[in-house]
Amino acid sequence: MTKEQLVIEIERLLKEPSEKPQFNVCDRLPCKNGGFCKPIGTSDYSCECPQNTTGVNCEKVLVCTLNTCPINAECSISNYQILCTCKHGYVKNQTECEPYDECEHRKPCQNGGKCISLQAAAAVDVTSKLYRCECPRHTTGENCEVVLQCTPTSCSNNANCFVDNHQINCVCKSGFATDDQGDCTVKIRQAHVWGEPHYTTFDGLQYDYQGTCPYTLTKPCNYDIDPKFSIRAQNKVYNFDKRVSVVTWVELTIYGHTFKVHENLTLIVDGTIVSVPYQLFIPGDDKWKVKADISSGQMRITTREHIGKF
Question: Which SUPFAM superfamilies match (predicted)?
Answer without folding.
Answer: EGF/Laminin
